[in-house]
Amino acid sequence: MDLNNSTHRKSGFTLAEILLAMMVFAIAITTILGLLARSIETADTILVKDEAIALSSAVDSAMSEMDFATAYDEVRQGSHLYAYHYRAYPNQTPNSDGTLKPYQNMTGTSMIGSDYVVVPGVRLSGDSFLSADMPARDGRLFYVELSESEANPYSIQNGSGNLPANPDAAGSNGYPAYDSAVIVVFAEFYEVSNTTASPASSATPVFSFNFAVRR
Questions:
Q1: Residue 23 contacts by C-beta under 8 Å, 6 or more apart in sequence?
Q2: Phi, psi at 5, each rounded to 5°
């Protein structure tokens, strides 16, 4: 008997064993890649939400700086605005509305802090300065949908969707039609690619919050 030849045959791998090993390896790689893809997607979702949260105070401020009738009407009509960060000139004369002018001359030597600063921008869709800001945008663009909050004092008493067309029109008992001192707004952030895009009807907001605009 050839013992060496018998030992050699026993130490090899069959085709079935090789195929099984390859199958196990393929399943393991597919699982790892799937987990990695989900991790990347989760991390990106967190970053988008964080950016929206960072802009929420700017949305609150922009709405509070409007006169009450304008802010009220935007909410009653379910309007939207855009929120974003953009590069701006720190020392130039600001726009007529007090916002900083966009820094569009970005070069390889441009330095943040000296040549430009990054500031939040919040504008209604028809704002004439919106298109000028877009080439200087720094980060994501959010479509912010405005609506009457369920926490609005008037809505609690009268039901949502019943806001008077004119908040200061004569109401009952000598009070205005809308007698609350504030309007509570519900703002929903959707990420969009440009100012002509709107979120799909099936889209879910990346972030939402309530805030109040005082009279």
A1: none
A2: -65, -35
Strand-pairing partners, residue 86, are 119, 137
CB 185 within 8 Å of CB 146: yes
Closest Cα partner for 67 from 181, 202, 213? 213
| Domain spans in the chain, listed from the N-terminal domain onward | 38-214
pLDDT at 5: 55
Cβ(184)–Cβ(153) below 8 Å: yes
Q: Does 8 score more than 70 pLDDT?
A: no
Residue with token string 């720190």: 90
| 124: CB partners within 8 A, 6+ apart | 74, 79, 80, 81, 82, 130
More confident position, 123 or 22: 123
Of 102, 125, 131, 126, the closest CA to residue 115 belongs to 102
Global confidence as pTM: 0.78
Q: How far apart are CA 75 and CA 37, in angstroms?
A: 39
The full DSSP string for 170-211 is B-GGGSBSS--SEEEEEEEEEEESSTT----TT---SEEEEE
Q: Using the structure block, give the residue that is written with the tokens 């980060």.
A: 139
**104, 135 contact by CB (below 8 A):** yes
pLDDT over 70 for what percent of the chain?
88
User: In one letter, which amino acid is 137?
Assistant: R
